[in-house]
């Protein structure tokens, strides 16, 4: 267990010092001004954010910002990169994010009253975007969404085509009557 924690700490320290990441310059500046190691600055920020998501005003905005900003930034970087693997990774994130948003819309009346909801949702969003083999968006997509899609995509495609055809007929008939 101690070896796993030390490995996690080493990985986190490497990530916090990775010059290609957008937060490195900010952490370096804070580290220089305070004399506190960036690992402890990061952990303090995580603790503050966690407490704020439980007790703070505007926790929904903070949680949704965390679930949107970094993935949006890295998605744009992925689009601009020559590799396509990163495009697939972030498209998968957005599919899971969109499905979760739809489900959350219907569960919002109940979930909003749960005191730890925004903290748990934020942890869920972080899990969806984690750069590990156990990335939440890939796990949920491959185990839940993809099998359902493969089973039902024919019926969905047919329904969408019927809706499209109906919309064209309605538009054409309304234009002819004018």
Structural description of this entry:
This protein is an all-alpha fold. Helices cover 84% and strands 0% of the residues. The protein is built from seven helices and no strands. Helix 3 (38-55) packs across helix 6 (117-129) and helix 5 packs antiparallel against helix 6 (117-129). The chain starts with a helix and ends with a helix. The relative contact order is 0.06. The model has no long low-confidence stretch (mean pLDDT 88).
Mean pLDDT: 88
Instruction: Assign an overall shape.
Output: elongated
Largest sheet: none
Helix-strand topology string? HHHHHHH
Summing up helix and strand content along with how strands pair, one would put the structural category as mainly alpha
Number of strands: 0
pLDDT below 50 for ≥5 consecutive residues: which ranges? none
Strand content: under 5%
Distance between the termini: 75 Å
Helical fraction: over 70%
Radius of gyration: 22 Å
Tally of DSSP helical segments: 7
Quick synopsis:
This protein has 178 residues and is mainly α. It is built from 7 helices and no strands.
Annotation keywords:
178 residues, mainly alpha, 7 helices
Which helices and strands occur, and which strands form pairs?
Blueprint: H1 2-17, H2 24-34, H3 38-55, H4 59-80, H5 85-111, H6 117-129, H7 136-177
């Amino acid at each position: 267990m101690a070896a796993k924690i030390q490995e996690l700490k080493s990985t986190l320290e490497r990530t916090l010092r990775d010059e290609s990441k957008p937060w490195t310059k900010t952490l370096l500046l804070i580290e220089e001004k305070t004399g506190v190691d960036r690992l402890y600055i990061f952990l303090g920020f995580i603790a503050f954010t966690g407490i704020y998501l439980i007790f703070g005003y505007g926790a929904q905005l903070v949680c949704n910002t965390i679930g949107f900003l970094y993935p949006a930034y890295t998605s744009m970087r992925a689009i601009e990169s020559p590799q396509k693997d990163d495009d697939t990774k972030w498209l998968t994130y957005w599919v899971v994010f969109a499905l979760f948003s739809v489900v959350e819309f219907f569960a919002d009346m109940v979930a909003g009253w749960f005191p730890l909801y925004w903290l748990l949702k934020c942890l869920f969003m972080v899990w969806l975007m984690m750069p590990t083999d156990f990335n939440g968006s890939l796990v949920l997509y491959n185990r839940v969404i993809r099998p359902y899609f493969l089973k039902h995509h024919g019926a969905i495609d047919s329904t969408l085509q019927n809706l499209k055809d109906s919309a064209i007929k309605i538009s054409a008939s309304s234009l002819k009557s004018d």
